[in-house]
Amino acid sequence: MTAAGLDIRHFGTEDLTEIRRTIIDLHAAAAGPDRDDDFKKKFPWFVDHWGGKEGYVCVIAYDDGTPVGFAYGAPLDEGREWWREYVREVPEKHRTFAFSELAVHPSKRKQGVSDTLTRALFENRPEDLAVLLVDVTHPRVQSLYEDWGFKKIGERRPFPDSPVYAVMLAELPLR
User: Fold this and answer.
1) Residue 62 contacts by C-beta under 8 Å, 6 or more apart in sequence?
2) From start to end of the chain, where are the E strands?
3) Residue 92 CB burial class (10 angstroms; 0-12, 13-18, ≥19)
4) What parts of the chain have a pLDDT lower than 70?
5) What is the C-alpha R_g of the chain?
6) What gap in Å lies between CA 12 and CA 14, rounded to an integer?
7) Which of 46, 49, 119, 154 has its CA at a distance of 20 to 30 angstroms from the CA of residue 162?
8) How far is it, in rounded angstroms, from Cα 58 to Cα 40?
């Protein structure tokens, strides 16, 4: 299978009930043994949190009807872009899409699925920028985001029990 043969489907807040279990199951498979980490056990809460945001969008990749990966996020409220505290000068264009999650089933990795999902998620976005957090202990994942044009602008621990994350910002459209 190559990413070119995938069926990419788009979903919004109104579809969360339908796709919630798929997202949670794919995330658990992608996390592998780390899924038992106390912070990762909170993932269903994050699915509900992001899925309830205005403008939420999720893309799920299917291979012969089987879900193999997903990506989702939502626009940040204008004027409340939390990433501003990490830059000296806020860019003139600052409407921001928060790229919250990306997960690919381990059996489908290194086949272009992440790239396909990310590009589908950002297709025709009206925002100027995209922001995301990536665990600092995963430099290969950070490098993948850098390939798409994201730059590390700082580090953040958003919750007392969460890992430390690299804060990464990119101009849209992605390269």
Assistant:
1) 6, 7, 8, 9, 68
2) 7-12, 57-63, 66-75, 96-104, 129-135, 151-156, 165-171
3) exposed
4) 1-2, 33-38
5) 15
6) 5
7) 119
8) 19
The pTM of this model reads 0.92
Are 97 and 127 within 8 A, CB to CB? yes
Beta strands 151-156 and 129-135, pairing class: unpaired
pLDDT tens sequence across 10-61: 999 999 999 999 999 999 999 876 655 667 788 999 999 999 999 999 999 9
| CA atoms of 169 and 145, how far apart (whole Å) | 9
Residue 60 corresponds to which amino acid? I
In angstroms, the Cα distances linking 136 to 48, 63, 104, 139 are 25, 31, 19, 6
